[in-house]
């Protein structure tokens, strides 16, 4: 048993040292691209003119409906021979992850935009706000709070999704655990990898929950607008201070 | 806040012949259902008109068409003689571009039944948002105007509050201030007290009566508050099935309605 812990003690730092970098880079790059793709395709599918909706719908369905592994292989092996563009391992991984998860994210964005009450859109129109102002100042801050739980889910999935980037020759956690396994055995090697993935996912999920609470507070939801603190319909004491407890 | 605050009780003045609002052969369909058909009427400058009628009679649709929240199926709407969404060129009906529509729409403001305050902003920001980002006012100017308006609706001390901290009546008063901050020539009031508890209705109507007394903003009002209609408006139009079945000054309409539909409707709600 103590040997097991010794092996785990060997595996963990090895993985952190040799596998963490590529996993984190492909995750962070993929996450940035995912959000970008999600926002653009989500806005296009919900707000665009009919032709743009069609195109973006097709893009979303294509990247959701095809295998991430095949997309990786296509970008890594087929793209250079077809076009002469060689992205290299890391950019290939980031591009494939970002497009694939971004396609799912687009649905999160679209759903959140659709969930902002119609009255908010109409009021912005009634105040003659141009489209960009309406989206940026009124709709987006409200939709943002709604899309964060969905993004949280996707980002945690993306952390684990990076496990396939070894296929395009990156030395990520999964690939390195295969290497370390030869030295310390199957159990400690994969357990070490599981622990590291879990910790990354925990951090990601925690950060997203903080963002989510902040976004909700801005909308007067959550702690800020709970029943206890919400003012009731009494108009006679306008001067009375609002209850304390503004988080 | 309107720059010209001369109280006016008269309709269109003779110096400018174009009425403030003109509906010409307006038709509105939702799918296969025709809500408005061959509708023609004009509203004079500074005139206050109340639209009454059973639900589904098309009165709210009229306000929503004016606010460009619904597409016009056929016909024309003119504001000060300018086309709102469709123009007539060489006898043909031409749809205007969004930018042209926005120009005329800026003269119109609307207050909704559900208040629709922006939950991501304070009360003050709700009011200053459009003046800053649409009219291009400076932040200081917009803030000063907003505080004056909040004073007027009796909520200056809640400027920094969050919408969820306000009662329905307070939220609606903020919504009125927000609409007025755009300095509209026309104010559309769509059942603005229907979502309020009865004891909060008075404050909101008081604010609107004050606006009616101290400005010459043209008002189109959809309401079930007949006393308010009587106090504020110069004309009442009774709608049924997308048509005006009767129109008259409120005194006459409420005491001696001529049309049978009007009589039945008024009996049912008063």
TrEMBL record, chain A:
<feature type="transmembrane region" description="Helical">
    <location>
        <begin position="90"/>
        <end position="109"/>
    </location>
</feature>
<dbReference type="Pfam" id="PF00528">
    <property type="entry name" value="BPD_transp_1"/>
</dbReference>
<dbReference type="GO" id="GO:0006865">
    <property type="term" value="P:amino acid transport"/>
</dbReference>
<feature type="domain" description="ABC transmembrane type-1">
    <location>
        <begin position="20"/>
        <end position="208"/>
    </location>
</feature>
<dbReference type="GO" id="GO:0043190">
    <property type="term" value="C:ATP-binding cassette (ABC) transporter complex"/>
</dbReference>
<feature type="transmembrane region" description="Helical">
    <location>
        <begin position="144"/>
        <end position="169"/>
    </location>
</feature>
<feature type="transmembrane region" description="Helical">
    <location>
        <begin position="58"/>
        <end position="78"/>
    </location>
</feature>
<dbReference type="InterPro" id="IPR035906">
    <property type="entry name" value="MetI-like_sf"/>
</dbReference>
<keyword id="KW-1003">Cell membrane</keyword>
<dbReference type="InterPro" id="IPR000515">
    <property type="entry name" value="MetI-like"/>
</dbReference>
<keyword id="KW-0813">Transport</keyword>
<feature type="region of interest" description="Disordered">
    <location>
        <begin position="226"/>
        <end position="247"/>
    </location>
</feature>
<keyword id="KW-1133">Transmembrane helix</keyword>
<dbReference type="InterPro" id="IPR010065">
    <property type="entry name" value="AA_ABC_transptr_permease_3TM"/>
</dbReference>
<keyword id="KW-0472">Membrane</keyword>
<keyword id="KW-0029">Amino-acid transport</keyword>
<comment type="similarity">
    <text>Belongs to the binding-protein-dependent transport system permease family.</text>
</comment>
<feature type="transmembrane region" description="Helical">
    <location>
        <begin position="189"/>
        <end position="211"/>
    </location>
</feature>
<dbReference type="InterPro" id="IPR043429">
    <property type="entry name" value="ArtM/GltK/GlnP/TcyL/YhdX-like"/>
</dbReference>
<protein>
    <submittedName>
        <fullName>Amino acid ABC transporter membrane protein 1 (PAAT family)</fullName>
    </submittedName>
</protein>
<dbReference type="GO" id="GO:0022857">
    <property type="term" value="F:transmembrane transporter activity"/>
</dbReference>
<feature type="transmembrane region" description="Helical">
    <location>
        <begin position="24"/>
        <end position="46"/>
    </location>
</feature>
Automatic annotation (TrEMBL), chain B:
<dbReference type="InterPro" id="IPR030679">
    <property type="entry name" value="ABC_ATPase_HisP-typ"/>
</dbReference>
<dbReference type="InterPro" id="IPR003439">
    <property type="entry name" value="ABC_transporter-like_ATP-bd"/>
</dbReference>
<keyword id="KW-0067">ATP-binding</keyword>
<dbReference type="InterPro" id="IPR003593">
    <property type="entry name" value="AAA+_ATPase"/>
</dbReference>
<dbReference type="InterPro" id="IPR027417">
    <property type="entry name" value="P-loop_NTPase"/>
</dbReference>
<dbReference type="GO" id="GO:0005524">
    <property type="term" value="F:ATP binding"/>
</dbReference>
<dbReference type="InterPro" id="IPR014343">
    <property type="entry name" value="Ectoine_EhuA"/>
</dbReference>
<keyword id="KW-0547">Nucleotide-binding</keyword>
<keyword id="KW-0029">Amino-acid transport</keyword>
<feature type="domain" description="ABC transporter">
    <location>
        <begin position="21"/>
        <end position="266"/>
    </location>
</feature>
<comment type="similarity">
    <text>Belongs to the ABC transporter superfamily.</text>
</comment>
<dbReference type="InterPro" id="IPR017871">
    <property type="entry name" value="ABC_transporter-like_CS"/>
</dbReference>
<keyword id="KW-1003">Cell membrane</keyword>
<dbReference type="GO" id="GO:0016887">
    <property type="term" value="F:ATP hydrolysis activity"/>
</dbReference>
<protein>
    <submittedName>
        <fullName>Amino acid ABC transporter ATP-binding protein (PAAT family)</fullName>
    </submittedName>
</protein>
<dbReference type="Pfam" id="PF00005">
    <property type="entry name" value="ABC_tran"/>
</dbReference>
<dbReference type="GO" id="GO:0005886">
    <property type="term" value="C:plasma membrane"/>
</dbReference>
<keyword id="KW-0813">Transport</keyword>
<dbReference type="GO" id="GO:0015424">
    <property type="term" value="F:ABC-type amino acid transporter activity"/>
</dbReference>
<keyword id="KW-0472">Membrane</keyword>
<dbReference type="InterPro" id="IPR050086">
    <property type="entry name" value="MetN_ABC_transporter-like"/>
</dbReference>
């Amino acid at each position: 048993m103590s040997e097991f812990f010794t092996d785990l003690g060997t595996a963990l730092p090895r993985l952190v040292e040799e596998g963490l970098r590529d996993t984190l880079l492909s995750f962070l790059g993929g996450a940035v691209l995912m959000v970008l793709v999600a926002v653009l395709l989500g806005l296009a599918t919900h707000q665009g003119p009919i032709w743009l909706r069609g195109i973006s719908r097709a893009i979303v369905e294509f990247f959701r409906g095809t295998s991430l592994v095949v997309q990786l292989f296509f970008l890594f092996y087929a793209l250079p021979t077809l076009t002469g563009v060689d992205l290299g391992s890391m950019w290939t991984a980031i591009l494939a992850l970002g497009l694939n998860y971004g396609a799912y994210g687009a649905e999160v964005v679209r759903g959140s935009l659709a969930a902002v009450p119609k009255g908010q859109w109409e009021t912005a129109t009634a105040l003659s706000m141009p489209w960009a102002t309406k989206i940026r100042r009124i709709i987006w801050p409200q939709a943002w709070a709604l899309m964060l739980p969905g993004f949280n889910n996707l980002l945690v999935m993306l952390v684990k999704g990076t496990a396939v980037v070894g296929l395009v020759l990156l030395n990520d956690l999964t690939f390195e655990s295969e290497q370390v396994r030869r030295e310390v055995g199957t159990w400690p090697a994969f357990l070490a990898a599981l622990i590291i993935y879990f910790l990354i996912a925990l951090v990601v999920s925690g950060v997203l929950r903080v963002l989510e609470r902040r976004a909700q507070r801005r909308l007067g939801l959550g702690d800020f607008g709970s029943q206890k603190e919400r003012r009731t319909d009494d108009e006679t004491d306008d001067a009375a201070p609002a209850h304390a407890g503004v988080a | 806040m309107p720059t010209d605050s001369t109280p006016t009780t008269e309709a269109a003045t003779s110096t400018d012949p174009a009425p403030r609002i003109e509906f010409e052969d307006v038709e509105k369909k939702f799918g296969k259902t025709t809500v408005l058909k061959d509708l023609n009427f004009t509203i004079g400058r500074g005139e206050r008109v109340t639209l009454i009628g059973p639900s589904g009679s098309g009165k709210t649709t009229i306000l929503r068409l004016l606010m460009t929240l619904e597409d016009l199926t056929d016909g024309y709407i003119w504001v000060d003689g300018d086309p709102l969404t469709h123009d007539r060129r060489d006898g043909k009906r031409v749809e205007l571009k969004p930018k042209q529509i926005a120009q005329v729409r800026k003269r119109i403001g609307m207050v909704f039944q559900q208040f629709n305050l922006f939950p991501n902003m304070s009360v003050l920001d709700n009011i200053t948002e459009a003046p800053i980002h649409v009219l291009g006012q400076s932040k200081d100017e917009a803030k000063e105007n907003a505080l004056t308006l909040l004073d007027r609706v009796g909520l200056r001390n809640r400027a920094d509050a969050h919408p969820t901290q306000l009662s329905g009546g307070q939220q609606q008063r903020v919504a009125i201030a927000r609409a007025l901050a755009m300095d509209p020539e026309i104010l559309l009031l769509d059942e603005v007290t229907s979502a309020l508890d009865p004891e909060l209705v008075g404050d909101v109507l008081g604010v609107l009566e004050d606006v009616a007394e101290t400005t010459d903003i043209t008002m189109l009002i959809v309401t079930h508050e007949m006393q308010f209609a009587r106090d504020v408006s110069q004309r009442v139009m009774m709608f049924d099935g997308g048509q005006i079945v009767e129109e008259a000054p409120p005194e006459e309409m409420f005491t001696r309605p001529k049309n049978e539909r009007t009589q039945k409707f008024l009996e049912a709600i008063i």
